[in-house]
Amino acid sequence: MITLRGKNIYLRALEPEDLEFIHIIENDESIWEISNTQTPYSKFLIKQYLEHSQKDIFEVKQLRLVISSYSEEPLGMIDIFDFDFKNSRAGIGILIKDAAERNKGNGSEALQLLINYCFTHLNLHQLYCNISEENEASIKLFSNQGFKEIGLKKDWNYVNSSYKNEYLFQLINN
Fold first, then answer.
1. Long-range Cβ pairs for the range 79-82 (8 Å, 24+)
2. First CA to last CA across the chain, in angstroms?
3. What residue stretches are annotated with the N-acetyltransferase domain (predicted)?
């Protein structure tokens, strides 16, 4: 795996030592809406996931990386999902775990590193993301990286007894 290094953060592959960090994130009900999670994950299941996380993106169609500070503190995760080699596209998702670490530029830097990786090393033609219309921070983050809103999916996600709309954003590598 190519190490993806930025000025303030770097992206790295998942390690067995990330078990507790991922367990906390996956079981944080406040972000279940973002990840479309419905139930908690056990440490056993996450450990199994970590054991298989080193499989090739061309085989499993996804890649999860840890966003890490240079002091080795994991700040969040960034994902490539629905990797479609034939059509040269993939989805991207990002999460900075602690609210206190957000709005410091780490998400922007991580997203830019991953975009460059996708276009340069994976030779993708386009990336996309799905963002709840209420998630203004993510809309701003992806828009600032050149993603364009291309559609609104009405009543797309059922959250807390009501339906919420979701935007589809896309970035095409020209």
1. 80/114, 80/118, 80/122
2. 25
3. 9-170
Percent of the chain with pLDDT over 70: 94
Separation of alpha carbons 77 and 69, rounded Å: 12
pTM comes to 0.89
Q: Which residues contact 16 (CB under 8 A, 6 or more apart)?
A: 47, 50, 51
Parse the chain into domains and list their residue ranges: 4-126
| Amino acid 1: pLDDT | 45
Closest CA to 77 of 29, 28, 51, 111: 111
110-122 pLDDT, tens digit each: 999 999 999 999 9
- pLDDT at 104 > cutoff 70: yes
Q: Measured between alpha carbons, how far is residue 166 from residues 8, 12, 34, 35, 138 in Å?
A: 31, 29, 11, 13, 12
